[in-house]
From TrEMBL:
Similarity annotation: Belongs to the 'GDXG' lipolytic enzyme family.
GO molecular-function term, one example from the UniProt record: hydrolase activity
Alpha/beta hydrolase fold-3 domain span: 1-222
Gene3D superfamilies: alpha/beta hydrolase
Protein name: Alpha/beta hydrolase fold-3 domain-containing protein
């Protein structure tokens, strides 16, 4: 599994304690080899820097399979034909955009078998009902969400840019039907829930095999602070992979 941490494209890293603990728990409970990616952050490195680093990570894993001197822990224990991309929040956004870019590349013998979107972060100029309803969310209030997009999107872009809002019409949508099977996980108390459901609808209409797992109780990042939810989420991922 290639994993992309959350943080709104602006915060945290692969070495952050919470991200590391989450990856270690997934590695143990699934079990799986987790390659956690330390991508460049905004505002110093605006999008698509994160996506470029994500594609580089995919190619690095592929190269380990091709190189006789590749990393032994991957070559000896990894199955390159069953690679999954997973991310939380903006990391799930990166899963979508990086995989879309990777469709144009020769990844063999690596095969992306599935995509896992944990509470994916998408946006748009028009406010959704959930953004308005949870505008004062304790973890992701609307002003913070707007600021994260302002810091991370290309200069001059608004939240209807395809990086933020892939649901808008554009040439990027021609690739969506080629994406592998997908799991989308969310919580109904998340300000992003309406965007996530629009995203699922877009995938399904394009013919992607998509599984949606939404909990009526919970909020954005609840699995970070609630170990029971974290374990339940890992079981969803395990069931999807196994």
């Amino acid at each position: 599994m290639i994993y992309f941490h959350g943080g709104g494209f602006v915060l945290y890293s692969a070495t952050d304690a919470l991200a590391h603990h989450n990856c270690a728990q997934m590695a143990s409970d699934i079990p799986a080899i987790i390659v956690s990616v330390d991508y460049r952050l905004a505002p110093e490195h605006k999008l698509p820097a994160c996506y470029e680093d994500a594609v580089d990570a995919i190619l690095w894993v592929r190269d380990q399979a091709l190189d006789p001197e590749g990393e032994p822990w991957l070559k000896s224990f990894g199955d390159f034909t069953r690679c999954y991309l997973s991310g939380r929040g903006n990391g799930a956004n990166a899963v979508f955009h990086a995989t879309s870019r990777a469709l144009d590349l020769d990844l063999g013998p690596l095969k992306i078998a599935g995509l896992i979107y944990n509470q994916p972060m998408f946006g748009g100029v028009q406010r959704t009902n959930s953004e308005i309803r949870f505008a004062a969310d304790h973890l992701l209030p609307l002003p913070v969400l707007d600021k994260l997009w302002e810091l991370s999107l290309p200069r001059g872009a608004d939240r209807d840019h395809r990086f933020s809002n892939p649901m808008i019409d554009g040439p990027h949508k021609s690739k969506i039907g080629s994406l592998p099977r997908s799991l989308v996980i969310g919580f109904n108390g998340d300000p992003l829930i309406d965007r996530q459901q629009e995203f699922i609808q877009m995938l399904a209409l394009a013919g992607v095999q998509v599984e949606a797992q939404f909990d009526n109780v919970g909020f954005h990042g609840v699995d970070i602070v609630d170990q029971r939810r974290a374990l339940a989420l890992i079981k969803m991922v395990k069931d999807f992979i196994i």
